[in-house]
Amino acid sequence: MNKIYNIILYMLLSIPIYATNKACDFGIYELLCEQQVNPIGIDNEKPNFSWKISSIQRGFTQYAYQILVSDSEHILAMDKGNVWDTGKCKSEQSVLVEYKGKELESSTKYYWKVRIWDKKNVSDWSKTGSFITGIISEKDWNNAKWISLEKDDTKKNLYPGIHAPLVQNKIGKRMVGNYTLPIARRKIQIKKEIDNAIVNISGLGHFDLFVNGEKVSDHFLDAGWTNYAKTALYTTFDISEFLKKENVISVMFGNGFYNIPRERYFKQLISFGAPKLKLCLQINYKDGSKEQIISDEQWKFAESPITYSSIYGGEDYDATKEYDGWMISDFDDNNWKSPVISDKPIKLIAQKSAPLTVRDTLNVMKKYKNSRGNWIYDLGQNFSGIVNIKVKGDKGNIIRLRPGELLNNDSTVNQRASGGPYYWQYTLKSGKYEQWSPRFTYYGFRYVEVSGTDEVDNFELVGLHTTNSAKETGKFSCSLPIFNKTYDLIDWSMRSNLSSILTDCPHREKLGWLEVAHLMQYSLQYRYDLVRFYHQMMLNMSDSQTDKGTIPSIAPEYVRFADGFEDSPEWGSAFIIIPWYIYKWYGDESLLKGYYPQMKKYLEYLSSRANNNIIEYGLGDWFDLGPKNPGYSQLTSNGVTATGIYYYDISIMKEIANLLDLSDDYHYYNTLMNDVKFAYNNKYYNEENGYYDRNSQTANAISLLFGLVDDANYNKVYNNLRNDIISRGYALTSGDIGYRYLLKVLEDNNDYEIIYKMNTKYDVPGYGWQLAYGATSLTESWQAYGFVSNNHCMLGHLMEWFFAGLGGIRQNESSVAYKHIEIKPQMPRGVKFATAEYDSPYGLIRCDWKREGNLLRVNVTVPANTECTMDLPFNKDSKLREGGIIINDNKWCNNFTIKDNRIKIKIKSGNYSFELQNF
User: Fold this and answer.
1) Which of 617, 578, 619, 618 is closest to 598 using CA atoms?
2) pTM for this structure?
3) 3-state secondary structure of 804
4) At which of 468, 493, 526 does a domain end?
5) Which of 408, 521, 500 is nearest to 799 (CA)?
6) Does residue 510 lie in a domain region?
7) 574-586 and 590-608 helices cross at what angle (nearest 10)?
8) 443-475 pLDDT, tens digit each
9) Which helix (H) or strand (E) holds 481?
10) What is the per-residue burial (b if ≥16 Cβ within 10 Å, else e) of 806-829?
């Protein structure tokens, strides 16, 4: 009997029991899989998991975690993970924990939760998160075919594309891209009780998916833009709630960059083929069985009431050509056509970036008639998007809408700098109220010129701002109106150009010029969660890389430009800089590991273009402020920016090689850095006068920031930089490439008064000048010229300083994912208070400060599972308290050092209130 008792006791003691303390003062929020909340369409065999921690106590550090993953919400509710159970893992890691459970299945919904320990207690289980897989293995498309209304036609197709000015000479009058836009439908029956229904779909160029007449999502322009000769994207949806016994799945199509018709305006001409569909719907029944509905011969096609669709030219919709009831089950489609089956292979991967959606509705601010007798609708803001109209009139009446950023002197819409003719056109079908928005195109505009409304009974219009739906992560405000207005100015331009790629402008080009992608990366990431966005961008750059290793200046590269635009080091280097920034910002190593061979190949290409370690080709400091109209660099030699960025690339590759334990590469890059630095200084450094090249702001700033200046010469070069700015009355001259680095050098040297004075001027070109000119989004030129774009984000680098400088939020140089935070607010005399916050991978970081006479108040939030160094001004007369307690006596703040009139205090997570007297 005792033996049996001992066996039972042993078994009970062998079962892992995790103590639960209901008085526990910490918990978990915001569960992330693949850095998204409840994502749909995960195609990674080993997704990662992250969570954020809330804690009442200061100084919380995670001691251990346990993750459960299940394919059943019921099983997970019993605290069991039948797919993965990590057990209790002793680790501080709460960001990007890699999945190591059973093999995941395609088109399947999984559930997960996590709990954590400190050294004494365990938290409650988190709320349940979920993720839905897309197509993990190619075979799981279940033989779905590419189907379309018509065959691909070599006379209509064109790849690579042609820049518009060259079209006539290269292809004559051939009408490229003029395929008929289709609509498609398929009836299905549901015979059993559904657990869930997951559809994976790619509609090229763009698509809208409907079930029983209802659009299944709020997405706009699905799926994102790629080089369709290499890769296309699919999107995943859970349509469980839409299905009933009798169903119709229907699809509408638009052209996007898959087809650019040779009509109206086009920046470039390209066509990959007829609009087409690939779809796999997996219905998972509650009895455990599965059924697949695929794109095949059973679908039916017809011509769309969208009679024209162009990403560059606009969209026409003829409501008289609608098929009433075509999206419901009892519609007779016998006269519709059977699909054409395409055998052309197209590689499909899941769309990584957040979808585009409508973010804001803009009401009309003013309405009046112009010299042509057309109505002008002023929406008060330059933005990316479309319109929604509500109209009542006779069948056949045509409404035409011409959007534009600017107006001519006669109050007609000006499209000279934004690309024209571009318009939307709607043909009415009845005498009842009708509502319409363009589906598959958009423009950058503030004004809309409308014709055809005099013949209708009623007409209403609103603007719809379309942008990437990545969540906001940061906020900033301060006491100075010009800075708050500049913040809005830059933010509108960033949002207007956050499409499925980062565009240069939302109208005439819509191209992914790559210098903006890395130079504005930190500015963008303070405001929005863009880790998945940049994953998509890396794919586009990878697909655009040539056999020689070149990364072109735009990606996707639909057209090979010339005259320096096709390949400039400051642009292509995004392929090396972006994944390093992603690693530093989010802790995500996957891009470094996945693309390292191609990144290395690009660096080898740059080396092949060097002459004695100097690279001198490319566009240089684009749109700097020189004596001529902006364009090619005027004040700085191309060799300075090109060789400077080359050196920066090498320094990053050296760090990556060290991270990936590639010792041979590490030593090679170290040697190459020394060689390039020697050659650069030999060619560009003026020893006698202590400056680089022609003493431009850009030349000196780049040399200083990238570490190209010898320590002995640093002060001389920096003083020359400061003196140039001051001698110009604090006017800036740097352009697209140089201005970010100029601000960074000044910030790193705590020269915030100069930054303040440079960016609070209205009388010279800059942000104030643009505001005085009436700009509502950041313009392409510092001068706010009307003959170039008035919605560009390439010069928006002050956004980064608002957060890192005025707001003081940054991370330690050796930190990753904001594990080790630095808060060092810069407080120019003209600013009385500032507030900044950033929702980091570990949670919210916040700093707000306010000065009242000789008293400075600073409130700080440091997220759990991190630590922070506070850096504040301090002198011999200063007195610093936190929570009313002198820091010497404050156990949370007594680890500090004082040097050079600054105090650095090491603090743990929590909320802090500092008061500094006599600072």
Assistant:
1) 578
2) 0.95
3) helix
4) 468
5) 521
6) yes
7) 150
8) 999 999 999 999 899 999 999 999 999 999 999
9) helix 481-497
10) bbbbbbeeebbbbbbbbbbbbbbe
